[in-house]
Amino acid sequence: MKNLYYRYKGANKDVLKDINCRFEGGQLNAIVGPSGSGKTTLLSLIAGLDKPTQGIITINDIDLEDLDLDEYRRDSVSMIFQAFQLFPLLTALENVSFPMEYKGIDKNQSREKSSKVLESLGIDGDKQSRYPSNLSGGEQQRVAIGRTLATGAKVILADEPTGNLDDENSDKIIDILKQLAHKQGLCVIIVTHDMEIAEQSDNVWRIKDGTIEQVK
Amino acid sequence: MDTYNLEIGHKVYLKDSASNYPDVCGTIVGTFEGYVLPQYGSNEVQWIPSHEDEMFIFPIDAVRLIERNGIYYEKIDLLFDKEKNIELYRNREEILNHIAKTEYDYSTGYKLVLYDSVLTETIEPLEKNLELLHIIYPIILVLSLIIAVALPYLLVLRRSEELAIMRILGVKEVEVKRYVFTESLLLVIIGQLIAMAVINVLTFKSGSYPIWKYLFIIIGYLLASIIGILASLKNVLNKKPMDMLQVKE
């Protein structure tokens, strides 16, 4: 990200000011900062859900402006949220399989791959055919992670992924994210309030009053 | 004049002097005025008090017999009070045409007159109800159209999180629109089919519902629903996915 600025329409103040940073693959990155500091806005800019007022974002040296952002979100970047955001009327397996089926991958093939992904995350057996409402918070978040993995994305953006979880499940989720970064070489960016998560991350960035600085 | 002291509203039982004709009974609802004896087929009707230029009193079933078997007359009239019997008066021509079906070329100069003095008592409350329905129907129609717009609007709005997730997963906006539009429209059409089936069952005894009314209601409701779906889609997809998910900083 270079010289990034963002201002909401009609606002008279920038939410993000002169943001310059680089996130590497194979690392767990944490962005910390108080509420309203612009963390989630930064995440949505990286995800291509919004466009910066000024400045550029590049991925593998390609400007996001030059990419089809729908395709970019389908193939390169994926998000997980505090509230899991799974499709309530699809089973765990169908939720994970959805992005692949949307891409046109054969249904049986995508279900098979989804099942393996879910198994690797500890969601196996009949749990795969359960609806999100019949899974615990930790399980739902693992399904959400499974969905990001099924897309084949190289960048995972996590917005307070442990915010709705107890300590045990939080640890499990962070372990999974760490493994994805360290073993599979993914670039994982976590937005969090939790300083414990920040401590476990390879890089920590702090946003304050719209500006960012690396603190670890 | 022999009228048996009968008045409009009396219940009567008339026995035919010729055994091969059915007896009739019913309520007297009007009078029959003629110049020669009324004919029942080719026979003179004996049981109706008769005399040239005299007034007859007819029970309703006798009127039905006239319609069915044909007593020939050349002039018919309905003496309905215009003020009191608005609905009957409005349908005057229709009633006259209906009775006139029994008229033949070789008519004998009867004049059929139906009075309404008793009918008024029965029909007046019905007309009041009809007047009320004339006020209620447009209100119901407007309410239905509002519901037809609002319901799909709210249904799509309720799914805004789901649509946001789809957008975040890289589903193109046009495809999200197509998916939601098709699904919502399908729900509306299924709802309409169920409603039509229910209306058919409810109106089974009271006669068939005119097809043009069906079409008017179905097309009107469908158009209103489409407006609701499109308006909601526009509203929902104009928002940023993160706002739709209500993700706070």
Structural commentary:
The complex is a heterodimer of chains A (216) and B (249). In chain A, helix 3 (92-103) packs across helix 4 (107-120), helix 3 (92-103) packs parallel to helix 5 (137-150) and helix 5 runs parallel beside helix 6 (167-182). Chain A is globular and about 50 Å long. Chain A is α/β, with parallel strands linked by helices. The mean pLDDT of chain A is 91. Chain A is built from seven helices and eleven strands. By secondary structure, chain B is an alpha+beta fold. Helices cover 55% and strands 13% of the residues of chain B. In chain B, a hairpin with a 2-residue loop joins strand 3 (39-40) and strand 4. The longest helix of chain B is centred in the middle third of the chain and has 40 residues, at 119-158. Chain B starts with 10 loop residues before the first strand and ends in a 5-residue tail after the last helix. Classes of the chains: A alpha/beta (216), B alpha+beta (249). The A-B interface holds A 35-41, 44, 47, 49-50, 70-75, 78-79, 81-83, 85-88, 98-99, 102, 147, 151, 159 and B 161-162, 164-165, 167-173, 240-242, 245, 247-249.
Beta-strand portion of chain A reads 15-25%
Average of pLDDT of chain B: 70
Helix and strand content put the structural class of chain B at alpha+beta
Give unreliable regions of chain B as ranges: 33-60, 70-74, 102-110
Distance between the termini of chain A: 18 Å
Tell me, briefly, the overall form of chain A.
globular
Helix and strand composition category of chain A? alpha/beta
